[in-house]
Amino acid sequence: MALATTTAAAPTFDVRAVRADFPALHQEVNGYPLVYLDNAATSQKPETVIRALAEFYRRDNANVHRGIHELSRRATEAYEAARARMAHWLGATDPAEIVFTRGTTEAINLVAAAWGNANVHEGDEIVLTVLEHHSNVVPWQLLARRSGARLRYLDIDDEGRLRLEQLDELLGRRTKIVCVNHVSNSLGTINPVAEIARRAHDVGALLLVDGAQGAPHLPVSVAETGCDFYACSGHKMCGPTGIGALWARRELLEAMPPYQGGGEMISVVEKEYSTWAAVPHKFEAGTPNFADAVAMTAAIDYLEGIGRPAIMQQEHELVCYALERLRDLPGIRIYGPSSLEDRAAVISFTLQDAHPHDIATILDHQGIAIRAGHHCTQLVMKRYGITATARASFAFYNTQEEVDRLVDGLGEVVKIFGA
Ligand code: C6P
User: Fold this and answer.
1) Which residues are CB-contacts of 173 (< 8 A; sequence separation ≥ 6)?
2) Which residues line ligand 1 (CB under 6 A)?
3) What domains does the chain contain, in order, with CATH numbers?
4) pTM above threshold 0.85
């Protein structure tokens, strides 16, 4: 694995050595070396993660918490170690506060169903923001419809920052929960979640943070943030697909009824009723995705090996460089914060009259992968009166040469669509 040596405050970072760890980065697409700039959708996987998954299936594969045999013991041990590793990654101390889910979407649905059904009633209010991914909108709409609660939305300004001055008007004694993302997937805005937690708690409401784009790129400390729920996806942080986590304060989990019923989430089953297993197992009905959870441990080991400061610095430098170069393109409009302190490594843009899908197609012909569309954030698109943007999203394994390839590729778009 590639390295981070830290002799002084600034970590050194050898991007070439890091890239050598990611087999998928070394291929040609449409006759060009791949430039992968769709990391907000999903990250590539280092060899150690791919190997950990294969090795688990080769050696330790057995169902967890069920068998009284050696393989089941090993698998259970590795699965519970993965839980502790995820807790540590999110700055939590109690592994029982981690519920493994398929990803962020399932984690938020779990809260909206299990906590929401028990605690949100007619006349209550749920505060969302227009910056949310559909995964942090639709589950709350479903809950509002079931319960008769009202949804209220915090707006964003023209640079994609939350208009916090509206919070006082939105928050009140009817507010039950505030739901906000840590980092916006479509604009890259880094949101002040600790301040929002304080203000939500001041009125007795809870805070759920959608950490799908936060956990891969920023230091996360659920304790310091003071949130009540934090959701994230493994596949966006070098881990396998199909595994993610919900962190929740233990007393909340203990008070919440189960989300789904099935094997291993019970204590006793009678004909007419059942009692529940202790947390977090109460929320993990059926055979969990233990193989991917175990491989997720390898992903966290890998990221910790590089170190969050090195990851953040590399991504920060990339986004500075990319913004500087992109701004020179004629007819480009870049969305999101203009200052770099509250912008993560995501750049959404439109370019002249080119449809974002055409931009993505032209770039794909040159081996450059970006995303185009509404990015599952239609409320953001509506806020700016557009239907889609093109989006380049960076990871620590991207390089300045790749940014140059992006800019050159967009030069082709300008030639095709330009006057
Ligand atoms: N955003 C993107 O290209 P899942 O699909 O459950 O792993 O993550 C959902 C999700 C929730 N919140 C935010 C802020 C997200 O960015 C995502 C996933 C991807 O932007 C796929 S739409």
Assistant:
1) 203, 204
2) 40-41, 103-105, 133, 135-136, 181, 185, 210, 212-213, 233, 371, 375-376
3) 10-39+307-418 (3.90.1150.10), 50-304 (3.40.640.10)
4) yes
